[in-house]
What does this fold into?
Amino acid sequence: MSPPTLIDAPSANSAEPVALSYELFPPRSDAASVTLWKTIRELECTDPDYVSVTYGASGSNHETALDLVDRLQLETTLRPLAHLTCVGGTPEELSRTVNALLDRGVRGILALRGDRPKDGHLPDGSLRYAQDLIELIRRVERRRFAQFAAGKVAIGVAAYPVKHPESPSVAHDIEVLLAKQRSGADFAITQVFFHPEQYSALVHRARRAGVTIPIIPGIMPLTSLRRILRLSELSGVEPDARLVDRMRAAADDVETARRIGVDASVALAEAALDAGAPGLHLYTFNEHESALEVLSKLNLPRPSRPSLQAHRRTT
It folds into this structure.
């Protein structure tokens, strides 16, 4: 007799809402800010559950990230999930940053290790791993529980459908994810992947090891061959060779190449949803067109709540 599946695929009659979120990064110029805010307004109309705001290596864009978080909360209906990297940061520095986020009303933090310094040197007493950051956030949170009306901070972490470039094995990646869960992580968002089966295989490995937190697939709209190749180079994740070949063949026909990329992205998302994914996280690169085109081809069950238009009529 076969054992029960380790992936909780939704039933045909399931009405469970699927989470929707986007990734944004702080603008690097005034022109980039104009583009970003057009994207924000377009994405806001889809009523996502949250938008993540990236944080540069070693806090290199600390102030612009906090500014974007502030504006999102003051000028939009969007809920920010603030990225925070920890490698090389001291507990005192990181506690101040966590408190600054909580002071701003942020209640979601994506706890990441971040890139190690190129020279490999880390200051004495600094944090080394995302697990350390999760535990630090929980310590800060406990000191402020009285302010949260019995609520808590939601802590997200990264998960890897393909072996992390510094990891000895995919099994080690799962051990790390399990350790993050034990330290207090609430959910995980995957890094980019290019093959549909990679998400379901990750969830299968994780569930067998005892990981129970939601694992949300991170989907990149695959509409730019240059971006695909660059991201592959940076992450060490090999892209789908057939997709690359098809997009190269259509290089002189922008619309055809775009359609190929959108269809490939939709296929990744649908495969993840079929495998029981509790949500989708779209890496927008601060551009809305491709993300919205992918979203338009998916029939996502979403929560029923007051519309953005109704909110605007009453404010």
Observations:
- The chain has a mean pLDDT of 89.
